[in-house]
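Deviation from plan, reported transparently: adenosine monophosphate complex.
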Amino acid sequence: MRDDNCIFCKIANGEIPSKTIYEDEEFRAILDLGPAAKGHALILPKDHYANLFELPDETAASVMKLAKTLGARMKEKLKADGFNLVQNNGECAGQTVFHFHLHLIPRYTDDGQKIGWKPGAPSQDELEEIRRQIAD
Ligand code: AMP
Ligand code: ZN
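Because the crystal trials were delayed, the predicted structure below was used instead.
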């Protein structure tokens, strides 16, 4: 369940050192080397899954629980004012490392970061057409 060419497999399994903030049998959480804000961390499963769609449902559920636990800890210890969870899938969505990871980004009032998008302005008809494509 590992990919020998994957850097996050090596980090998650301790073959490459990292600033680890949490570890158990299934996951390692590390500080991001290029943080968006102080404490920006990544939860990595120890097994290799390229993205969310390869992740088993039970692992996905465990990741979200761990994000909640670590997020609360970081908010308390780093005195963060808010928190973003970010998870990119696919190159066009900003994914650069193709081993599933969940970004935990503590936020601080006036930290000057922007995590977001440019809002579109679809008509009600356009929204309805898209709704149908997805729901039906
Ligand atoms: P993404 O763009 O969602 O694939 O995120 C990849 C993230 O991994 C980026 O925020 C990088 O700064 C971070 N990153 C890449 N290599 C390392 C590394 N060796 N240790 C810690 N973080 C890393
Ligand atoms: Zn991997």
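Residues 51 and 100 are 4 Å apart (CA to CA). We consider this an acceptable substitute for the interim report.
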